[in-house]
Amino acid sequence: MATSKRLLGMIGLGVAGALALGLTGCSGGGDDKGGSDAGSGSGDLITVGFVAVGPEGGWRQANEKNIQDTFTEDAGYDLKYAPAANLDQKSQIDNFTSFVDEGVDVILLSATEATGWEDSLKRAQEAEIPVILLDRGIEPDDTSLYVTRIAPDNVEVAKEVGAWAAAEFPDGGNYIVLEGPAGVGVVNERNKGFEEGLGDSSLVKVAAQTANWSTEEGKSVTETLLKSNNNDIQFIFAQNDEMGLGASQAVEEAGLTVGTDVKIATIDGTKNAIQALADGKLSYVHEYNPLFGETALDVVKKALDGDKVDSYIVVPSKAFDSAEAAKAALPDRKY
Length: 335
Ligand code: AHR
Fold this sequence. Notes:
Elements: H1 2-12, H2 18-21, E1 46-52, H3 58-70, E2 77-83, H4 89-102, E3 106-109, H5 118-126, E4 131-134, E5 148-151, H6 154-168, E6 173-179, H7 185-198, E7 203-210, H8 215-228, E8 235-238, H9 241-253, E9 263-268, H10 271-278, E10 284-287, H11 293-304, E11 312-314, E12 319-320, H12 323-329
Parallel strand pairs: 1-2, 1-3, 3-4, 4-5, 5-11, 6-7, 6-8, 8-9, 9-10
Antiparallel strand pairs: 10-12
Alpha-L-arabinofuranose (AHR) binds at residues 56-57, 59-60, 135-136, 186, 213, 240, 267-268, 288.
């Protein structure tokens, strides 16, 4: 029974600190499946509850497919995929609670909202079920409540976007920010990083508005802001590709030219955005690499074996700052 193994794990290993609490939850000694032989009723398979976001756009689809393609039965896992209902946090909390009650061996969480997770995480901790955050962080960020967060560094990625924008506009100009939904942790991180990257640039923010990660809203919000600013916008920072692609459509329909009249920078690095960069419809794309399933699998093994893990594992991500760079990268893009 997994519970008895967890109890043995707790007794058998010195707990190095609150962070390690979840790591000693399931130590049962390694086996040929490369991890603890903990199993919660599904034979030898390690059960993984994936509290996911679900349909949200190209990045999310790539990320969640990569996780599902990695945690396979052949690899020794029973991955239970639980997408949110219409991005609703309550459905995520309900899914999380079900996994705790079911006694899964480990939980992966991509949070639709940053706040409101303390009670759920404490319940998992009491049940000695390690929780690993994928992509999205929690606020307040209490690292004792989870094993680690695996994600590219949003602040650093956005800082590079800001630095690029500052260099592109040495004489300043007006810009707008198309943000993800309010309450999503990465939105705040990207705003923070972007402003750090701008430094003492004389670029002026004339508006910041959510376009909810969507192309349609990215277009409509940009149309409105271009009109209300008499097209006097020189730069658009879109916090994800889809919103940036919508902005690009709006710029062109306003009779302006991307790259000449308005530069557009986005984050994610999905194939559509890299193609748009190659075609001159975007000006800069910073990857936010979603393909970290192997890293997550390695962390799950370490967590179940009681090994210590850093509280934030940064996934490397690169920038594309020209059509030439995009054209060179396109053949090898995996998402
Ligand atoms: O949390 C990552 C963000 O969520 C991506 O940048 C966006 O495309 C996704 O919806």
